[in-house]
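Hi team,

Below is the intake form for Phosphoribosylformylglycinamidine cyclo-ligase from Streptomyces gossypii. Please confirm the fields before the structure is written into the shared record.

FORM ID: S-0412
PROTEIN: Phosphoribosylformylglycinamidine cyclo-ligase
ORGANISM: Streptomyces gossypii
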Amino acid sequence: MTESTAPESPGASYAAAGVDIEAGDRAVVLMKEWVRKAQRPESLGGLGGFAGLFDASALKRYERPLLASATDGVGTKVAVAQRMDIHDSIGHDLVAMVVDDLVVCGAEPLFMTDYICVGKVRPERVAQIVKGIAEGCVLAGCALVGGETAEHPGLLGPDEYDVAGAGTGVVEADAVLGADRIRTGDAIIAMESSGLHSNGYSLVRQVFLERAGWALDRRVEEFGRTLGEELLEPTKIYSLDCLALARTTEVHAFSHITGGGLANNLARVVPDGLHARVDRSTWMPGPVFGLVGELGRVARPELEKTLNMGVGMIAVVPQDSVATALHTLGERGVGAWVAGEITERGEGGPAVTLTGDHAG
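The structure came back. Fields below:
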């Protein structure tokens, strides 16, 4: 009697589990061109090593160099990019979120690494993300020295991804900016944001896409472009502007206005006993902020603690530095204005107060 034998099932493999190593290799080939453009003289080696190298002997010119580090992502803004199938601006956003945290203490961004997690490696799309990161690094004056692309099938859908980045900068120990430098009478200079930047997109998407039911390709007269184009406007990169400001005049502190809004982020650099008064009447937020409030019936306190409301970076400077600061920023094409001042804080009073109503 002959015993029948069932056909053997194919053995397990990484490819069968959903990970395409060949696609990953092709993505590396496509991104090399962009990574080469995001270098500094101190960058060593090339793409493909196990670690990025940076020549630290360049720090010898510092008397006491302090290294600063920061890490961040771009939140649910990636969901808009995925729906529109536009991916390079997300890389730009990632750089902005990292380097503009570094520069707050006065640090010059030196280099960045990135982490891209995808449901399925689509080489051209990964290369577009890296292209945006590389272009952002050029605008920030830092190098892109390495990164990682990870494929997580089953955890993310085939067209889903997330990004994160980490950056390192350097600042002279006696040039560190922050709360200990701020004095009564200092001026608060606001720098205009390019739009929503990369915060509050869970609220923004809920208002426009779910509550209002607007399509991303809908043309919005207030924006002069489509909703999707407005939502994907890249985050402004301020690092070189802030460094130029610190070189040309006295700066006591910077504050990067991200999640938590203007008041909460500015409060992080206001020392005990002092108070920052910001006058809303000194600027008019862009129309996207008003439409989020109107369509979603979002109360002003909720808007202001979620969105940047038109201000992406704050500089706190002495009164006698105001004219030079505004001139420097103006020459660099950064919209800036005096938005308030530092005063004494009353007993039990808040660190930051927003007063008045927006212009317009």
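SUMMARY LINE: The CA atoms of residues 241 and 331 lie 10 Å apart.

Thanks, M.
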